[in-house]
Amino acid sequence: MGSLYTAAASYLDARAHAGRWLLRVEDVDRPRELPGSTERIVRTLEAFGFEWDGAIVRQAQRTPHYAAALRALEARALTFECSCSRLDLAEEERYPGHCRERPLIPGVATATRLRVEPGSVQFEDRVQGIYRQDVAAAIGDVILRRKDRLAAYVLAVVVDDAAQGVTHVVRGADLLDNTPRQIHLQRLLGLATPAYAHVPVLVERDGAKLAKSARSVSLDSRAVLPQLLKVFELLGLAPPPDLAAGTLRAAWTWAIGRWDIRRVAKRLALPLGA
Asked: How many domains does the chain divide into?
């Protein structure tokens, strides 16, 4: 339900502004990908009436593009190799810069980090309002390529947003604090910054994540319309009762015509209720 809620917010915002809605499989972390998961996600989107524009982009096939961006940063001495493990940094609130001059432990696999200097990144989120973060103070030097040589999320998403011409991003508020580091990286690479909107993350009444509850199970394909209407309600649309007797297409048409992102709750988490 949480994923459907976020996807619907993104879809409605794109369609209400006559925009394109893109489908990208962010499978850069291939060791953690479950077999068949991508196909199940695509089938679920189709079942709920989502229609995307263009071909599906898979990050697993875009490694050369991430490598090219890294080389551009390396050529300007904006990166360094880091030998620190998660265990090494377990006591740290932020990366303290151990390997800025040279890897602390020679002869081991290293991650590539971006040198992040002090200074605030500020942007106006379309839902959450003004958000400001000093990336250096909050997390320190950002990992761009992991020790297993796979691109980190922040690098992949910045490169792909630019390549796909993304102008607006609508996603969950759990990624709000990741956005300043993306904007910082966009600026270093000379890329445009999209407009961002971070919608609340659905949680249980006690604040627990849905992923930890029974509602994390797959959506019920036998009750597509009722679940979609519940999502519309959570997004502040107040669907009328007669929509429940209509078609999926009619429900989407109604919601697109009434979409206003200002109706979305201005909070980081939204209780789903009983």
From this structure: 1
Cα angle value 246/46/249 (rounded, 5°) = 25
Burial class (CB in 10 A: 0-12, 13-18, 19+), 257: exposed
pLDDT tens digits, residue range 198-251? Answer: 999 998 887 777 764 555 556 777 889 999 999 999 999 999 999 999 999 999
Q: pLDDT by residue (tens digit) across 40-72? A: 999 999 999 999 999 999 999 999 999 999 999
Residue 76 belongs to a domain: yes
> Tokens for 28?
């850069």
Q: Specify the pTM.
A: 0.93
Residue span of the structural domain in which 92 resides:
62-163
Q: Is residue 108 part of a domain?
A: yes
Residue in the block written with tokens 């009722």:
226
> How many degrees, rounded to 5, is the angle at CA 184 between CA 178 and CA 189?
125
What is the spatial distance between Cα 272 and Cα 159, in angstroms, rounded to a whole number? 34
The domain that contains 85 carries what CATH number? 3.40.50.620
CA distance 89 to 264: 38
In a domain, 86, yes or no: yes
Q: Are 191 and 162 in contact (CB under 8 A)?
A: yes
Residue 27 lies in a domain: no
CB-based contacts of 258: which residues, under 8 Å, 6+ apart?
A: 237
Beta strands in 17-146 (DSSP E): 24-25, 57-58, 79-82, 111-114, 120-125, 129-134, 142-145
**Cα-based angle 265, 268, 273 (whole degrees, multiple of 5):** 65
